[in-house]
């Protein structure tokens, strides 16, 4: 073990993994400063001993030091917020995000310029005036704490519930407003081209929009383990980028052009989806997933993925435990990195032409890692999921590609968008048919509590453990 190669890449991997692990530990429960200090001291002794005598301890020292730093960052992030006494306010604010809207109310996230007030406030108001991202507003109402059971770390801790008055002060042009306008027109184009529930399904695939999905379809997606395909995450964005890259291959484009086309597709997707901060995080993960697939050595992407995750978690540690979109993005990209080279030899029966085999391998790799997470969050373990996903997932890239082109064309030329959407209609009919049919099979899914559902994560956990063991402990790099 003393001949273990201590390369910068291995040190980086140990450090990034330690920080993420520390943030995870600190997010679950408060770690006292005495324990963190003891870990610092122990890591210092390990590093000194490692540099002087036993080199194998260097990695352990770096990992423990990073673990302590991660736990310390989480502790500071989750300090109890000071309670806010209910009081009347009259403040200028900026609309950061539009969360939801119904016939009776709209929920928006606003930021205020008054330093004596919380940075983020949940505003619940009547549907009129309709608020959009970037609006400058003047709000008069009662500011009060949100009950603890309705809050989450990293989210707003105070709200203004149905204020007395809301005055929109400025509605000027902005990049955000342009993105929202294009998203609205894109959504209208989707609903003009496709009938329900195909329109809602396509909006979920392309925009992560789930509010318009029929209840029956939501249930079928949950039972078949396919709910992740209608969430805005790095998984979906990776599929978009891979689809564009695959399409360019038909035109004999070079690998460089295909990669740049995929990156452009990611930028356009996020612009239209208007995902805000969560969309940007998903785009970063999607970019890493595309980069991982385009490189000859997928293993080299692990450090880049963990570094990106560390940067995001350093800004907002609550993402690791409390943000499903981040979890889906991270696990999907990790699955792409680890599982793709493992699965490809077993998919020899799929034609290799136009990178079809690689595309299917990448899609299934991401699915293997996100399925246990879906089961954990929704308390439903789908026994039929492997079959449903095998029948549906290989066609998702084409569905998203044709649907995107149809909706984009339909904004300018509705009748042409309708014609272009014919191919997507056929694919959607097949996919919804498979999902609906397999959901009706007896014992297609089991309702299990979290700990039992988590057991289904053993497969990806074992693959990830073996992979990181090879990267950190083995004397040779994995081939």
From TrEMBL:
GO terms for cellular component: plasma membrane. It comes from the Bacteria. The chain crosses the membrane at residues 12-45, 57-79, 190-208, 229-253, 259-292, 304-322, 328-349, 361-384, 396-420, 452-469. InterPro entries: ComEC_N, Competence_DNA_uptake. Pfam families: Competence (PF03772). Keywords: Cell membrane, Membrane, Transmembrane, Transmembrane helix. It is a multi-pass membrane protein. Residues 205-468 form the ComEC/Rec2-related protein domain. Its main location: membrane. It is found in: Cell membrane. This is ComEC/Rec2 family competence protein. It comes from Candidatus Sungiibacteriota bacterium. The lineage of its organism: Bacteria, Candidatus Sungiibacteriota.
